Amino acid sequence: MLRLRQKGAAVQKMVDTSGFTRIRRVAPIATETHGGRAKCLQRLIRLDLPVPQTVALSFDTVHRIAAGGMPNIEALLKTFGERPLVSVRPSSEVADWGGPGAILNIGMNDARHADLTASHGKKAANALYLRFVQSFAINVARLDPEMFENGKKGDALAAALKAYEDETEDRFPQDPAVQLSEVLRSMARAWEGTSARLLRQAKGAPADAGLGLVVQQMALGVGPGESGAGVIQFIDAATGRAQITGRYMSQTQGRDAVKVKAGAMFLTRDERGPSLEEKCPEVFQVLQDQGDLCRRKLREEMQIEFTLENGVLHILDAVRVQRSSRANVRIAVDLANDEVISREDAVLRVEPHSLTELLHPQLDAQDDRAPFVRGIAASPGAAFGQIVFSSAAAQASAARGEHCIMVRRETTPEDIRGMHAASGVLTERGGITSHAAVIARGLGLPCVVGASDMQLNTKDKTVTTADGSIFREGDIITIDGSTGRAFSGATEMREPALDDAFQSLLGWADAVRDIGIRANADTLAEAHVARNFAAEGIGLCRTEHMFFEDDRLVVMREMIFAKDPTDRAAALDRLLPMQRADFTALFRVMEGQPVCIRLLDPPLHEFLPRDRDGVRELAEALNMPVSDVSRRIADMSEINPMLGLRGVRLGITVPEIYDMQARAIFEATIEASKRGDPVVPEIMIPLVSAKKEVELVKSRVDAVAAAVASENGADFDFRLGVMVETPRAALRAGEIGQNVAFLSFGTNDLTQMTYGLSRDDAGRFMNDYVHKGVFAEDPFHILDTDGVGELLMLGAERGRAAHPDVVLSICGEHGGNPESIAFCRAAGFDYVSCSPYRVPVARLAAAHLALKQPVSS
Amino acid sequence: MLRLRQKGAAVQKMVDTSGFTRIRRVAPIATETHGGRAKCLQRLIRLDLPVPQTVALSFDTVHRIAAGGMPNIEALLKTFGERPLVSVRPSSEVADWGGPGAILNIGMNDARHADLTASHGKKAANALYLRFVQSFAINVARLDPEMFENGKKGDALAAALKAYEDETEDRFPQDPAVQLSEVLRSMARAWEGTSARLLRQAKGAPADAGLGLVVQQMALGVGPGESGAGVIQFIDAATGRAQITGRYMSQTQGRDAVKVKAGAMFLTRDERGPSLEEKCPEVFQVLQDQGDLCRRKLREEMQIEFTLENGVLHILDAVRVQRSSRANVRIAVDLANDEVISREDAVLRVEPHSLTELLHPQLDAQDDRAPFVRGIAASPGAAFGQIVFSSAAAQASAARGEHCIMVRRETTPEDIRGMHAASGVLTERGGITSHAAVIARGLGLPCVVGASDMQLNTKDKTVTTADGSIFREGDIITIDGSTGRAFSGATEMREPALDDAFQSLLGWADAVRDIGIRANADTLAEAHVARNFAAEGIGLCRTEHMFFEDDRLVVMREMIFAKDPTDRAAALDRLLPMQRADFTALFRVMEGQPVCIRLLDPPLHEFLPRDRDGVRELAEALNMPVSDVSRRIADMSEINPMLGLRGVRLGITVPEIYDMQARAIFEATIEASKRGDPVVPEIMIPLVSAKKEVELVKSRVDAVAAAVASENGADFDFRLGVMVETPRAALRAGEIGQNVAFLSFGTNDLTQMTYGLSRDDAGRFMNDYVHKGVFAEDPFHILDTDGVGELLMLGAERGRAAHPDVVLSICGEHGGNPESIAFCRAAGFDYVSCSPYRVPVARLAAAHLALKQPVSS
Questions:
Q1: In this predicted structure, what is the pLDDT of residue A152?
Q2: B764 touches chain A (CB under 8 A)
Q3: ipTM exceeding the 0.95 mark
Q4: What are phi and psi of A564, to 5 degrees?
Q5: What is the widest separation between alpha-carbon atoms in chain A?
Q6: Is A596 a catalytic residue?
Q7: Which of A260-274, A357-371, B732-746 is most confident?
Q8: In what order do the strands lie in the sheet with A242-250?
Q9: Would the pLDDT of A246 be above 80?
Q10: Beta strand A682-685 with A719-724: parallel, antiparallel or unpaired?
């Protein structure tokens, strides 16, 4: 036990051992031992704010209480003087971990009620007693809450006391020490209960997270003069912009002004009703000053709970303002601009993942309708529109200026134009890195995949849900790619917020980060997004999508069906100017920044038609019998196309294609140079598994470069590199990396091959696997550092050892994840490349890493 | 230069520096400096055989001659006495590397011709001179051979001399020293020519392989008394059995008796004509004695070249008998049984790959018809039969007792029964480890895959070759799976030779080898083969093939289409006794030897019908509409089945299947025990990529084992292990191997995933890739030690480190290759498992390794 009136070190020691501490300016309180609220209250006291006397109980003490112990309550109460009324509030290490609700007016009993009736009036005395009886009965004695609901004011107290007696067959406890110890025990036990523990563990709390409690002298808020309670904050929680927000209500306690609303007054002058500013201008001015003091000294936007007791202001508590992701960015930036915090601190205060919300339209968080199907959240953002079942219908809808959601079993490269036209994509199959998901993220298009509980009938053009409802083409649905849900009908959206605060924050992040961030971009639209998000170049430009546009697809198919090298050369000659135009435009958008172009990767059969009509059209275009065309298509089909004739294997088997692509790149490079935007293009060879593959392609690319240079009398540089996406390429990175400028690890395919797992087919069981804990995470979503990661490390080490200047990067879907960036940074990679819409997240995550784990080199 | 009559160390030194050495008993000649023939001749001299005086020229000397130098020819000739006649023969390090032909009778000129006419008669003198003039003109002066063909005997010499003078405008050289130096120069230069070098490098000679030459005093073979020449050997070159073979012809030189034949006599008594045994019984007896001496002292079966000069026997040369693989085995075994060589030497004398020929019928090596198509040699042996295009037709053909060759685009598991019925398989697609190839090797069935130059039309039932010929169903063709060729019509075959010599040799191999050899066997037939070839158990029993038999396939499909767990359980209950019977029979064949059973691996859709009829049948069986069945089948299809829902993923998603299989295994184990053949079954989990997968399956298998044990009141042991076939499983072998009994590396899938290369689709470009040197070898054929091998090493090291007792093995297609066995042995693996027909090769290869590279542990 502690004698609080004594001073000095010896006393403090006793304070510690007895488990409760009167919070003063001295004897620091630690968040780790007493919780955040206790710590914050000490800060307020140190700022000389009018905080009623407060005592803190440590985690240890509360834990002992839960186990049956109890500190000396008489002594504790005595620190508050004679016959005090007190409140108890939880003080956990992190506010978000929850805790039992506050209990006010402990110490109220019949005797105090009588006294207060005399001094404050019957109404106030009743209110104070009733509030305590209700709280105690419901939260401590665990009686049925319905029995203690407010009835008519006059009868309520008596009724509550009677209900308590009826239920417990005992009188309502009159001894304040008994009241307080019961409250403390109840709160301590509630914290240790299973449901509370699971709830806070879900929010990231450790299993042994402790609870502190603060016992505070009541400021009454009811009674004579201007008495009441309110909360005030100085910013808008949704936008983060400066704006005094909150409510005040006379003759109330706690947060009634916010909860009840009816009868509450505004804080600032407002035409809609009375305000504290008008009613108590001095108090309001003090509140504003104290709020400003809090902001500067606590270096945070706080919500302050205050009470007026007969005109005297008391500050009971202050908590960090709950806020939207968007508001959080502005608050951090404003604090830094006001020099309250450093720019680095501002950067660290924004969680990288939280930026995603700012980049796309979002469903209103309040919207709690039931989705008609759930799938995998494949590309963030929300969208609504009419259901369409084909790429053609999506384009038709876009042509009519109508929003549409493309619904497919799964998407193929042929659907890309439809995806460009659609507002969102919903697929029955596929996982987080299925075609639909990858493309949608690239386009910044909301996307839900693997919604396997719905049945798609493309012939009838219907979607049947698990409960048998049927959607038809043209029906309006909303999808939420951030949560993987789809809803019937349209919905209100919050628009993206790429404002000045956002730009400032990312600028500050760029100033500190030490790993490069590029974007994966195949199209001009994506390149524009990449530029807007300040990506440091394009880390992966897939060239295959360029061949799916109508006029090119026909030529591409002619090339594939060429009877002999002459025919093939003729088709490639027609593709060359188109491809050159692609790169010229791309270089123009990127204004001299590096652009890493991957040579053609997919198997050629992906460019061939799959349906009867397409085959007939092709037969007409080629002037061949349908049967011959069908046979050729069948001949080219593969059992496992992922592991077939594609990538560099294609480049070696039909080298003219890469020749054409290299020529297009070099000619575009010369044009860019003439235009005054000189660029050093990067050419990347996909799917390498042996050194010799690189040598063969390199010698042909070098030859094309020499030819283009001599034909044009122009000199240019370029870099040739390898996409490391087979386990063998990673293992052999030493010899493969020796004569190339860069090694870029394609973590999508590398993950597929390391696990022996197709991302297109994994959707069927991945949820089950993650649910059962077979895989801790979907390895296509979170980089598997144990397996795939080891190959990255081996590849990086061996590549660097053989060729110290080789540039290392990753360009798979994982590129934008903070976890992957941490991994790559630790492994000494030069940059990561990710979907353009992930670039802001990646820039911020990289800055966090640089600030949290500075590297010596 | 050397004075040969002097003796002692100083002289020998001079001998060495002057570049030629008279071969005597002392001063050893080395194969590495003077070649095999010189070395052998010294051995014959040491055996006191009547070898004419011989001088050896070293590799260095011959190299200097080619460069323009020349030893002192006068001195060399003087070692043979006055006016000698000599021959020159090549002496390379390995006889197989070739060399210029022998030249006889050097020293013949007009003067010697006159003398010999007097002493030996005109005919003999003419023959000796003419032979030399012809050889010199053709091989040294490089004149047109047609001009020096034998005309009428009387005119031939004069005509040849005149032709020589006309062509060279010079007289035929008369100085023996000039003759000899020209011969030596010509032979030396021929050896260094490009075509000779390429030829011998193709046979494995190093780029700087040297040529030695031997100069030997002529034994004339023509002239008075019994003069003539012949060759003798003491075994049959085709069978290896003891049998005196060879020919002798009077009044001839060199190997004329063998080449000309007409006029040659048999060696032993023969009813078909005269024999040396009858004509010169004493000489014949001496030859026999000397042959026996050679065999014992040279420890080899030699072919001896001999000459009779006026009744006196000379042994000119002896070379190792050229022989078939089969003969080589018998010769080695007989030599060991006669205690001429050790059993270990006998083992080392047989090249493991050469055994393959003995295991299957072979095409006659003399058959040089042109194949109608070439493909990949996928499973050795030859077969002929009628073309059939379907599994059903193959079975019908077998039912009629007719041989057939099954011709398919590629095979699927549904074709297995057809393959059992066929004599051979020919496919248009696929590589060395395609389905057809793997199954055929297991069945010991000749197979050619990837014959992409033929066009298969399954509808018309025709095969069209590159030159436009058409084969129809029923046409007879022959395929040679050892060379990858297919021929029109039937062909003579040599039957397999698994005789006592073969068995002895493999028994001796087993006595020395130090790594286990098991067989991959899925069927009883394969298990029988495995037993016959003395495999030490089954290393991989794939269970999927068991479900393709008609009665089971229906039940399997019902299981796959089960509406709920109850339906599924009912189907599995019907499969259980069938599966139990499979294992019971297998355990019976293997008589207590270990059997490693892989739980179901392929995706379930492999068991579903692909064609319209099959779907309709299934719809009938399931009493469902065809459209529903089609939809379900489409739903289950996968883009990359290799990387899809199969293996342990299936085991976790539908755990009842593995439960059933485990129960069948355990119940069969109990039956085996009751029968008196106790077995410890091994259960292998396929396609593992994470530790937790193993834990989940292990806990269920353990539970099934406990249940079966308690139901039967029986105790049994089993081992649970993991098939390591994903790169991740190899990398994580430490944690994966910790709680399992064994890790068996499936190198087929591991190669596919390490390269990102499907064996089914690789056929399309693998030939091109190997041809261009992109891959040194087809990695599905020869283990890629650099990439896949590193994963094997890492996996083995990590598995052993975490669990020192874990049993390590490989069970992929590579298991039987000597190279893979060497790799696994070096890495400390316990056994390799291979196709049953590869077991003998593997046993012998392992023995070679143990003898050549003994390990200290």
A1: 54
A2: yes
A3: no
A4: -150, 170
A5: 109
A6: no
A7: B732-746
A8: A242-250, A228-235, A302-309, A312-320
A9: yes
A10: parallel
Q: Contact, B364 vs B491, CB < 8 A?
A: yes
Task: Answer yes or no: do A653 and B749 touch at CB < 8 A.
Answer: no
Residue for token pair 């049956």: A68
Tell me: the pLDDT tens digits for B35-88? Answer: 999 999 999 999 999 999 999 999 999 999 999 999 999 999 999 998 899 999
Cβ within 8 Å of B, A 240-279: none
| A844-853 pLDDT per residue, tens | 999 999 999 8
Average pLDDT of span B119-134: 94
- CB contact, 8 Å: B413 with chain A? no
Q: Provide the pLDDT for residue B591.
A: 93
Instruction: Report which DSSP code applies to B606.
Output: G
Asked about A811 being catalytic, the answer comes back as yes
- Cα gap B808→B516, rounded to integer Å: 11
Q: Are A397 and A386 in contact (CB under 8 A)?
A: yes
Q: In angstroms, what CA-CA distances link A840 with A328, A346, B108, B377, B386?
A: 15, 15, 96, 56, 68
For residues A95-116, average pLDDT: 93
CB within 8 Å: B640 and A645:
no
Helix (H, G, I), strand (E, B) or coil at A41: helix
Exposure class string for B748-762: b at 16+ Cβ within 10 A, else e: bbbbbbbbbbbbbbb
Q: Which among B805, B807, B833 is positioned nearest to B820, based on CA atoms?
A: B833
More confident residue, B198 or A659: A659
Cα B763 to Cα B761: distance, rounded to the nearest angstrom: 6
Classified as helix, coil or strand, B175 is coil
Res B365 pLDDT > 70: no
Q: What is the pLDDT of residues A521-570, one digit of tens each?
A: 998 988 998 999 999 999 999 998 888 877 888 899 999 999 889 999 99
Contact A642 B643 (CB under 8 A): yes
What kind and span of H or E run contains A480? strand A476-480
Q: What angle do CA B842, B845, B849 make, to 5 degrees?
A: 135
Compute CA A511 distance to the chain's CA centroid, rounded to the nearest angstrom: 22
Q: What does DSSP assign to residue A270?
A: B
**Residue with the larger pLDDT of the pair B128 and A155:** B128
Instruction: Give the end-to-end CA distance of chain A in Å, rounded to a whole number.
Output: 54
First to last CA, chain B: 54
CA B394 from chain centre, in angstroms, equals 30
What is the 3-state composition of chain B as percent helix, strand, coil, each rounded to the nearest 5? 50, 15, 35
* Distance (Å) of CA B676 to CA B588, B670, B679, B714, B777: 10, 10, 9, 14, 47
pLDDT tier at B130 (50, 70, 90 boundaries)? Answer: very high
Helix H or strand E segment including A87: strand A86-92
The token pair at A620 is 């007409």
Cβ–Cβ under 8 Å, residues A845 and A814: no
Nearest Cα to Cα of residue A522 among A440, A408, A609: A440
On whether the CB atoms of residues B287 and B308 are closer than 8 A, the answer is: no
Tokens of residue A481, six digits = 């790619």
The verdict on a CB contact (< 8 Å) between B761 and A641 is yes
Does residue B717 register a pLDDT over 90?
A: yes
Spell out the alpha helix ranges (H) of B169-255.
Answer: 176-192, 194-202
Cα B231 to Cα B82, B240, B256: the distances in Å are 29, 17, 9
pLDDT value, residue A102: 94
Position B12 scores a pLDDT of: 39
Q: Which of B627, B640, B696 to mutate to test the interface with A (most CBs of A within 10 A)?
A: B640
Lowest mean pLDDT among A806-820, B738-752, B792-806: A806-820
Question: Please, are residues B233 and B304 in contact by the beta-carbon 8 Å criterion?
Answer: yes
Longest Cα–Cα distance in chain B: 109
